[in-house]
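In response to the reviewer comment on reproducibility (Comment 2.3), we provide here a single inverse folding case reported in full, input and output, so that an independent group could reproduce the run without further information from us. The structure tokens appear first.
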């Protein structure tokens, strides 16, 4: 009996031990499974290598864009091929001809080329020194295509030139030295000095001053040849009454004293430069000044566009200083007399100044993009056909397109078939750009019925560009996104002819890289309005996982620009996303382009209002996504984007924990007159003084206390002056706000000299990693909090 009891008790003990062991094994198994489920899988081997910061800086990862230079009167264009040689391509035969070997470019370290009209000579610029965004001081070689020899271009003032350009016939030349124009009918001829009143930094002939270069012409010259090459129209700018901005150049470390640089820089509400447009007959050297419209005399005004209609007439667009009223004039070569052909008045906004007319071959009509009202929806940009008769004071106008969508660019015209080609954005999807055509003949069946030529293309070609030859029969189509860009020569009646650039080397480099994935969103900001947003998602991100990633919003916010498009890009943000798992966010709020003028003009005369609200709304929206870490959000921007970043941080809404502002405008009184007054009016009492005060970042300094802030600027910035950051530094200091500052000595707005760019991005990356982790280095992804997380409507690429 005792043995029986003992055996039963022992049996029960073994059974208990077995059950306990099973429970332990089960618990351990559950723990292991849980760890496996919640641990991010190392998928680098499956999805590829990370796209690193070093890759971003590597030239082998730079996208190649194709820009053909069409030859006048021929179905040909020139370009540099993948080996760097200069090539002529015949569109009719699809044959190529060699012009110049790449070895000459390499021998001279040439930066640019210009082919003479007769294709006998090539201008090669070298020893180039950048002055401002477009202007340079450079030396030039003239390369003889037949002898394959080259020699220096020499001028009366030596070997350095501010501008050199060929004429439209033969190989005549115009060049500028010390702000004066010179002319050579033949390269063997002695130069003829055309102007004698040029004064460095004060009087400019044939080249723009700072503000016209930056804000109007976007060019290094202000010379326009007549088609026959017998006349030029040039601009003379007088900056003697413009206030000078002076900044320090620290220069060489061995110099115990600093130098200063003074530039004529008109700030908002201050004196502007004056100008004169002059026609000069190169055969008899007679000149005539163009007369502005009577309405603009004795007041400030600008010219924005110059185009020769034919050999005897010139189209000029004039604009009042307020930039809400423009007059198109047609002026005669023989006497400079002008008649007003068309007027444009903006309602509650500004007149677009960067539009160019395209004339028919007989000069009777021109096509131009103008605002057209579409009922209560407001104005949209459309193509108008305008009569250009010299006999009629006001040319008759007829719109060729209409509707709630924007035409962005006229790219070509087939004069024989009367078909015009253009790039447009459909308002319901401003991410895409497509090529369209329509007839300009009012009797044609497809008149006012545009046909989209690229909308049916594959999903990897939804953002296109096009460059047409003069005849309108051939064009280079660029599929610029979302896939890696490819450029194809096409015929308007026969399809593809040849692939000119496919970025095959870049494709090979990226084939094994783990690249970010793009998601698009419509973000509601009111009952009837939505803004477009975009996220670059880390390649390791799985939405079904319970991990949340930090987010960096990249912003710009300048009126008419777009950040949310399907255009391909490779940026610093891509390396952050791929290497560190940082989600990158973009938003196009009110004031962005492609959605009509009501949307575009939403923040007219009130910078720092609705675009700030929309950026904050996007930040909150992204924060509610299950895979976004709502406690690790940052924002950054450059220039106008720096202003928007600082405005968001200074709003007191505390949506972002960290922010970086690079070369920001902090007070619009400090920025140039043309850009600022276009959108903000003047800071004078009685105009828009209150809005200037309200947008001043220094007045918001106290609200920076809840965010980490990195302020970056170059002391040699001629565009957005260091003065902006200096005043913000003072305000933050007085408000007892802790922040970080990175100053780059003598660096300009682009911050790309020497090792500066590398140091800049490393500094910003280090700041962000510290923001997201509390210390520099790779951050750890955190587990998402399920509270208040929503999965809103999204479109996945």
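Designed residues, in position order:
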């Amino acid at each position: 009996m005792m043995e029986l009891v003992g055996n039963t008790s022992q049996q029960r003990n073994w059974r208990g031990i077995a059950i306990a062991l099973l429970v332990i094994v089960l618990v351990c198994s559950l723990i292991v499974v849980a760890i496996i489920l919640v641990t991010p899988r190392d998928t680098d081997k499956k999805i590829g290598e990370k796209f690193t910061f070093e890759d971003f800086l590597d030239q082998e990862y730079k996208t190649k864009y194709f820009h053909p230079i069409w030859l006048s009167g021929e179905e040909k264009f020139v370009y540099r091929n993948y080996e760097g040689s200069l090539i002529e391509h015949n569109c009719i035969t699809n044959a190529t001809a060699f012009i110049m070997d790449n070895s000459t470019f390499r021998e001279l370290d040439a930066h640019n080329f210009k082919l003479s009209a007769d294709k006998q000579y090539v201008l090669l610029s070298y020893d180039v020194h950048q002055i401002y965004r477009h202007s340079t001081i450079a030396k030039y070689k003239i390369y003889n295509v037949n002898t394959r020899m080259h020699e220096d271009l020499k001028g009366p003032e030596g070997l350095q030139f501010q501008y050199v350009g060929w004429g439209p016939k033969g190989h005549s030349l115009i060049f500028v030295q010390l702000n004066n124009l010179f002319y050579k009918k033949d390269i063997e001829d002695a130069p003829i000095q055309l102007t004698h009143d040029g004064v460095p930094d004060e009087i400019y002939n044939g080249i723009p001053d700072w503000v016209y270069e930056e804000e109007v012409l976007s060019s290094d010259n202000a010379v326009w040849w007549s088609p026959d090459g017998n006349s030029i129209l040039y601009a003379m700018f007088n900056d003697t009454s413009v206030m000078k901005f002076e900044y320090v150049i620290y220069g060489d470390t061995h110099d115990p004293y600093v130098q200063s640089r003074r530039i004529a820089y008109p700030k908002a509400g201050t004196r502007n430069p004056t100008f004169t447009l002059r026609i000069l007959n190169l055969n008899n050297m007679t000149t005539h000044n163009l007369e502005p419209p009577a309405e603009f005399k004795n007041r400030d005004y600008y010219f924005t566009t110059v185009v020769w209609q034919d050999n005897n007439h010139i189209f000029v667009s004039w604009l009042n200083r307020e930039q809400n009223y423009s007059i198109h004039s047609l002026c005669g070569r023989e006497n400079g007399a002008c008649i007003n052909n068309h007027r444009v008045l903006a309602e509650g906004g500004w007149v677009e100044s960067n539009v160019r007319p395209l004339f028919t071959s007989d000069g009777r009509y021109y096509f131009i993009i103008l605002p057209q009202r579409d009922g209560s929806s407001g104005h949209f940009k459309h193509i108008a056909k305008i009569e250009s008769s010299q006999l009629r004071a006001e040319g008759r106008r007829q719109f060729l397109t209409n509707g709630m969508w924007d035409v962005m660019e006229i790219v070509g015209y087939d004069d024989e078939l009367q078909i015009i080609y253009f790039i447009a954005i459909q308002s319901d999807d401003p991410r895409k750009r497509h090529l369209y055509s329509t007839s300009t003949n009012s009797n044609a069946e497809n008149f006012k019925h545009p046909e989209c030529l690229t909308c049916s293309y594959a999903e990897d070609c939804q953002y296109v560009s096009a460059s047409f030859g003069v005849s309108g029969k051939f064009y280079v189509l660029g599929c610029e996104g979302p896939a890696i860009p490819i450029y194809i020569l096409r015929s308007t009646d026969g399809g593809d002819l040849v692939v000119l650039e496919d970025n095959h080397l870049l494709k090979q480099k990226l084939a094994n890289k783990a690249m970010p994935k793009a998601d698009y969103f419509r973000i509601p900001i009111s009952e009837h309005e939505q803004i477009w947003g975009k996220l670059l998602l880390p390649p390791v991100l799985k939405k079904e996982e319970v991990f949340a990633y930090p987010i960096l919003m990249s912003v710009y916010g300048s009126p008419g620009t777009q950040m949310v498009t399907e255009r391909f890009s490779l940026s610093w943000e891509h390396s952050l996303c791929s290497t560190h798992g940082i989600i990158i966010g973009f938003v196009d709020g009110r004031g962005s382009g492609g959605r009509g003028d009501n949307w575009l003009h939403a923040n007219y005369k009130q910078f720092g209002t609705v675009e700030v609200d929309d950026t904050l709304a996007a930040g909150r929206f992204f924060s509610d996504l299950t895979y976004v870490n709502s406690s690790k959000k940052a924002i950054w921007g450059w220039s106008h984007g720096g202003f928007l970043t600082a405005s968001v941080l200074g709003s007191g809404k505390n949506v972002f924990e960290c922010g970086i502002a690079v070369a920001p405008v902090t007070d619009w009184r400090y920025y140039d007159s043309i850009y600022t007054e276009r959108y903000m009016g003047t800071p004078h009492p009685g105009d828009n003084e209150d809005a200037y005060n309200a947008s001043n970042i220094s007045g918001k300094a106290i609200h920076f206390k809840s965010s980490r802030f990195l302020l970056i600027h170059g002391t040699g910035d001629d565009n957005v002056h260091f003065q902006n950051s200096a005043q913000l530094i003072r305000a933050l200091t007085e408000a007892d706000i802790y922040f970080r500052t990175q100053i780059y000595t003598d660096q300009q707005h682009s911050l790309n000299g020497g090792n500066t760019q590398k140091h800049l991005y490393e500094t910003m990356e280090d700041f962000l990693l510290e923001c997201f982790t509390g210390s520099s280095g790779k951050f750890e992804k955190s587990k998402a909090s399920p509270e208040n997380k929503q999965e809103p409507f999204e479109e996945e690429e």
